Amino acid sequence: MITNEARQIFINIVGSDNYDDSKTGRLVYSYDATPQFQAMPDAVISPRNKEEISKIVQVCNEYNIPIVPRGSGTNLCAGTCPTEGGIVLLFKLLNKIVEIDEENLTVTVQPGVITLDLTKAVEAKGLFYPPDPSSMKISTIGGNINENSGGLRGLKYGVTRDYVIALEIVLANGEIIRTGGKLAKDVAGYDLTRLFVGSEGTLGIITEATLKLIPLPETKKTILAQYQDLEAAAKTVSKIIANKIIPTTLEFLDQPTIEAVEAFAQIGLPTDVKAILLIEQDGPEEVVTRDIDRIVEICKSEDAVSVKAAESEEEAEALRTARRSALSALARLKPTTILEDATVPRSEIAKMVKAIEEIAQKYDLRICTFGHAGDGNLHPTCLTDVRNLDEIERVEKAFEEIFAKAIDLGGTITGEHGVGVMKAPYLEMKLGAAGIDAMKAIKIGLDPNNIMNPGKVFAKDSRKRVVVSK
Amino acid sequence: MITNEARQIFINIVGSDNYDDSKTGRLVYSYDATPQFQAMPDAVISPRNKEEISKIVQVCNEYNIPIVPRGSGTNLCAGTCPTEGGIVLLFKLLNKIVEIDEENLTVTVQPGVITLDLTKAVEAKGLFYPPDPSSMKISTIGGNINENSGGLRGLKYGVTRDYVIALEIVLANGEIIRTGGKLAKDVAGYDLTRLFVGSEGTLGIITEATLKLIPLPETKKTILAQYQDLEAAAKTVSKIIANKIIPTTLEFLDQPTIEAVEAFAQIGLPTDVKAILLIEQDGPEEVVTRDIDRIVEICKSEDAVSVKAAESEEEAEALRTARRSALSALARLKPTTILEDATVPRSEIAKMVKAIEEIAQKYDLRICTFGHAGDGNLHPTCLTDVRNLDEIERVEKAFEEIFAKAIDLGGTITGEHGVGVMKAPYLEMKLGAAGIDAMKAIKIGLDPNNIMNPGKVFAKDSRKRVVVSK
């Protein structure tokens, strides 16, 4: 709840244009891309600069008001759902690319910059920002940093964390700090930069970031391999890596996903095969050609029924776009789509895919699986309906088993989507009580009043995936 | 101080063979590679497993005994000098390579493994662990992780942090946790893995680590470029990067360093030039050849007086070894060698080298400069004598100015050596009071009794570089 007094202070800070507590305004920000979670914020604030954010944080401390920093809300862990009310902080006025530094190969941005805009801006200068979450067309870089987003190129190039080298942060006490720099090497104290990457807005508010760039790869090639056997596809993945080839992208789609994607994108994907691998390599021409030739051989040796190279960049881009649309495509089939993020060491992909199939059968559910096979990051996706309470209960049990299996195989409960509210009850499966206690000690140390995105990462109780009342 | 009671408990835990409180035993571990720091520990303990370490930590908490975890003590920030007494914890019995996983491209090691042994073991399988601190022949991987060591290949491949993907840690409360996994993507909660990398043993004790490996580059080429003008050498560095070539190694040595290294290594380095660049590229044959050809052109266009390719791997290795021996070579010239670690964005290398020269002149000191020019990580090295108190005072003032200049140019007070005791008084220059407070909140949260390597990272007072009484 925001008192009239606090309300007036907020308006004095940001101006009345940038403070919205209308019912409509609040409703818009009462949910994010995560199904089953909705809660009304008390107000939506769009600060114009870090000084305003610092003041807002101080007011929130004084009046004990939760702050939920939010980019485009494309996250899938309810990380930006204001489950405890308070203010949603928008970055639409902090959306500048501050600098592209070609000498140091860095780009400095405000958090509200759209990921794809950043990508295009640096590519125009022959530079490359590799992280490419599927939501990159609408996600913001601030959201990517808070969630440590992954993407299709994670296998070869790593994730958002691997490119964040400096941050400007408004801490929970309102102090503004800068971490890191345009530096490949910096060991001055604890690595606050990486601690804040992926901390989901629970430790402070990122107001500027400097990202490492690399030279844009000279060329790129894309192939599509088709399989009548899931295991053969999974074995292909392992064999490529074991042959010491690290492709840029190594994506897996099972038959139901292919069917949905093809119905959605209509680019001529084969809908009669059990699985496809979408494989890309980038780099210098000679190397790409050599790697792709070897990959084609490996696919064939592992019983691919067809291996086809994209004949043009347009065709390749169509394939990539189709893959990125998997969630949207599946979401059309049933009222509720729950996309998960279980991740295993890549050697365990075949076992994990098989386990997901068995668990889906056991609980009589429709689970499609696709994802970043090369880095073991799978997205089992359940097509369901939140109004079917009996089925939703089975969904919950099935995913709990899927997470347990992932952990059992040396994996994790979330590879790139974050914990948020949704995964919080499962976090102990991965970290144990002692691991969670260590994280809590950091949270309490940096945000003693628990105003920074409260209720995220740490579970309040054992409540799991249930329908949240609206 | 260790009471008789605590002493007996320690002996019961590790056995009397692994507990040493003899004067000789303690003296050996009273210092590390950092000049001017020495302090006697109360005992030296060599645990045999993590369970023993957990018990030791619990005893230390109960009896308020400082713990200083130590690998080979090659650090240059007094990070392993037991300045507050207590126990030095050795990892000589935890020195196994646990597993090389060729399917997932990982290696799992105990902390006491020597870095070079690890490197050789994985290279025998065609895999590559890039971090290569100059001390790698004797340093341990545990020490590398605690200090987040860099090295000659940092420019292209990053530092230790970029390869640590999972840790087993004994926390300050004695709990044993596991972070991360054999996973390219893992966002289950805060990034404890990277928080512990570079935390200098102040947050917990690392008992096992899983490191990411990459395929061993197919080939490598090495060239030596000579300059009669420091600025031309520095400009070459910027121009190579601006041409979107990222060499593996781009090392800079000034004339006094070259002279000392040549006297030491006798491999025929030119001692009559103002600076040399040692440049290496690795990767597929075609790419290396193309990059090296372009680098040679760039060197010549920037007035290199000579550019010479190593004619064999032996010759290249001799050059690398010579570069790695710079500290040893310089250390022979005067009783005390203070090697520093100021780091700037690579675009500022020329300004920084010039500033160091001017500061050395101003304070009438002999400062040689060499380092990893490609990533802006310079090692200005002062040849002095701790017994000359007047000169040491000037050394202190000179380095303070060097750090201030580095910060001013967007750099940091330490690129790869860590803070330890030595840099602690300067840390605020980089982070500000608010940044240090944030780090202290983490420290207090995770180690409330301050038993984990106390006195490191955080300065007790404004005492700077002074001779510590023995």
UniProtKB/TrEMBL annotation, chains A, B:
An MF annotation (GO) of this entry: (S)-2-hydroxy-acid oxidase activity
Essential cofactor(s): FAD
Cross-referenced Gene3D superfamilies: 3.30.465.10, 3.30.70.2740, Vanillyl-alcohol Oxidase, Chain A, domain 4
Keywords: FAD, Flavoprotein, Oxidoreductase
SUPFAM superfamilies assigned to the protein according to its UniProt record, in alphabetical order: FAD-binding/transporter-associated domain-like, FAD-linked oxidases, C-terminal domain
PROSITE patterns linked to this entry: FAD_PCMH (PS51387)
Entry protein name: Glycolate oxidase subunit GlcD
Organism: Fredinandcohnia quinoae
The organism's taxonomic lineage, starting at the top: Bacteria, Bacillati, Bacillota, Bacilli, Bacillales
